[in-house]
Amino acid sequence: MPPPIIAPSILAADFARLAEEARAVEGAADWLHVDVMDNHFVPNLTIGLPVVQSLIKTSTLPFDVHLMIEQPERWSIGYAEAGAYNVTFHVEAADDPVALAKNLRAAGSRAGLAIDRDTPVEPYLELLPHFDTLLIMTIKAGFGGQAFMPELLDKVRAARRQVDAGHLELRIEVDGGIARDTIEAAAEAGADAFVAGTAVYASADPAAAVRALRQAAGR
Ligand SMILES: O=C(CO)[C@@H](O)[C@H](O)COP(=O)(O)O
């Protein structure tokens, strides 16, 4: 497996200082994870395209945009055109996930498929060749600071088997409750990209927290 990706989630950052908070993990993090929520797909509201368009200009980090929104077809391409490295939408919200993945790639970003807590992964494994990342929620999407759910790692194991059997170039990303005491189990299950909000931004030294997570991932 390739070296782990550590992606701090700005959901746990100070929203009045987003550019500074992004800079605080430059040099330590691999990607910056940006949670977009619309208060419909999930019962929470964060930021949208105009904020991401501005924030992306202030950072050297690749942006890993996680759309927790209805109608991802309407908004996804705008994030790709804004320069996002990876744009992930939820399978539960998309009408035609493969068509949207193709459109994202054509617009210049990587394409990610997200699976929420209550959605099985098996029906979607055959779609993986069309994607660059598979984001498996290890909580219910919507809020940071929730407890990691180890029982959801069975989905990671199933995805890892599929990725390895098909020799796919796809990152398996986990999101929710990832911290120094949970990241190793996620890595052992087969995840190779890790989103962490609270574990990074509740720390007095976010860059050091990222380095500690990388070490705890064990690879
Ligand atoms: O997508 C989400 C929440 O829906 C996550 O990205 C959270 O932001 C992760 O936060 P922590 O669980 O690490 O605090």
From TrEMBL:
Kindly give the PANTHER family that the UniProt entry links to this protein: RIBULOSE-5-PHOSPHATE-3-EPIMERASE (PTHR11749)
**Which residues carry out catalysis?**
35, 175
Cofactor(s) needed: Co(2+); Fe(2+); Zn(2+); Mn(2+)
Q: What is this protein called?
A: Ribulose-phosphate 3-epimerase
Q: EC no.?
A: 5.1.3.1
Q: Which organism is it from?
A: Rugosimonospora acidiphila
The record's function comment reads: Catalyzes the reversible epimerization of D-ribulose 5-phosphate to D-xylulose 5-phosphate.
Listed CDD domains: RPE
SUPFAM superfamilies in the cross-refs: Ribulose-phoshate binding barrel
UniProt-listed InterPro entries: Aldolase_TIM (IPR013785), Ribul_P_3_epim (IPR026019), Ribul_P_3_epim-like (IPR000056), RibuloseP-bd_barrel (IPR011060)
Q: Where does substrate bind?
A: 9, 66, 142-145, 175-177
Q: What gene, per UniProt, encodes this protein?
A: rpe
Q: Does the keyword Metal-binding apply?
A: yes
